[in-house]
Amino acid sequence: MEALSRNFFLYLSKNQPLNKLANLYGIRMVKGKIVGGISFDQAIPFIRELNADGMSVTVDHLGEYVADPHTAVERAGEVVAALELIKEAGLDAQVSLKLTSLGLDISEELVRLNLRRILTAADRLDVMVTIDMEDSERCQKTLDLFQKLKADYQNVSTVIQAYLYRSNDDLEKMEQLQPFIRLVKGAYKEPKSVAFQEKRDVDTNYRKLIARQLDSGSYTAIATHDDRMVSFAKHYAFEKGIGKDKFEFQMLYGMRQQLQQELVKEGYKVRIYLPYGDDWYGYFMRRLAERPANIAFAFKGMTKK
Ligand SMILES: Cc1cc2nc3c(=O)[nH]c(=O)nc-3n(C[C@H](O)[C@H](O)[C@H](O)COP(=O)(O)OP(=O)(O)OC[C@H]3O[C@@H](n4cnc5c(N)ncnc54)[C@H](O)[C@@H]3O)c2cc1C
């Protein structure tokens, strides 16, 4: 049943007519619940609120699978503008982005140029940029680009997904770069040729990757809402004498707010992933695929002034 609803919502996440319909209804349903608004400006008060509560933020301009080169260049310009605003407004925030929003599916040169433009600004402004990981077909290209750019830029990190068999090897190959890595379980529907299908196996691999990345001494973001994974990371770090300054917990905006606050009180660094933009539909469907109970947020949002 759980797998059925997951597949259903993942299928809906790629449905273009429904995406258009969702945009017609506007963002009211999810703003301030799971996304920050349509523009970066609208997200600023939410970032300030999180910062005041002791949490850092990473913002993500929603909108993936861009097929037109002009839009991809425009999107790069928008990321640079967001980086500048973060600095100007003195926000404790970083930026996350998806390579398919910058032209990964159009041409390798285009996405590389767009990324260089963004990372040049990120280094100048000293704001970290994390390259989100998309589906497994794009994983190698993403890691190749990340590794090339990491040689030239300081403020870049990426994501490793525990459901992929390859992830332990990927961490090993990148170890000498001492990368800042966000570890996640993985959000896409992947075939069993490349990914663990059982939750138990994903969780086992996730623990293994947390241990490996913490042991490496490189900065680690443990991005999960799962109490058992949070608890594992806390205990592992404590037993190994790994300081709280060597890792952080990351959670999605609107999820597990009490847990976020408890972690802050315990002295852990917590970063909230805050998406914004009018293309919120696919993001919302992936969150429903993970946890259909998230739909409650949306229905509350529809009736809220
Ligand atoms: C900051 C951040 C960035 C991410 N970036 C990426 C990325 O770049 N690429 C990618 O593929 N995926 C990304 N993800 C998504 C990730 O891969 C998972 O799909 C998602 O986090 C769900 O897995 P989980 O570890 O939270 O727990 P799950 O395995 O989904 O759930 C385990 C348990 O955690 C608890 N739980 C989970 N969610 C909730 C909730 N909303 N409310 C209450 N309890 C809950 C429940 O007890 C549940 O049984 C990101 C996630 C986060 C938090």
Automatic annotation (TrEMBL):
It catalyses: L-proline + a quinone = (S)-1-pyrroline-5-carboxylate + a quinol + H(+). It comes from the Bacteria. The lineage of its organism: Bacteria, Bacillati, Bacillota, Bacilli, Bacillales. One of its GO terms (biological process) is L-proline catabolic process to L-glutamate. Keywords: FAD, Flavoprotein, Nucleotide-binding, Oxidoreductase, Proline metabolism. Residues 47-296 form the Proline dehydrogenase domain. It holds the Pfam family Pro_dh. Substrate binds at residues 98, 286-287. Its cofactor is FAD. GO terms for molecular function: nucleotide binding; proline dehydrogenase activity. PANTHER family: PROLINE DEHYDROGENASE 1, MITOCHONDRIAL, PROLINE OXIDASE. Pathway: Amino-acid degradation; L-proline degradation into L-glutamate; L-glutamate from L-proline: step 1/2. FAD binds at residues 133, 161, 185-187, 199, 224-225. Its EC number is 1.5.5.2. Binds 1 FAD per subunit. InterPro entries: FAD-linked_oxidoreductase-like (IPR029041), PRODH_bac_arc (IPR008219), Proline_DH_dom (IPR002872), Proline_oxidase (IPR015659). This is proline dehydrogenase.
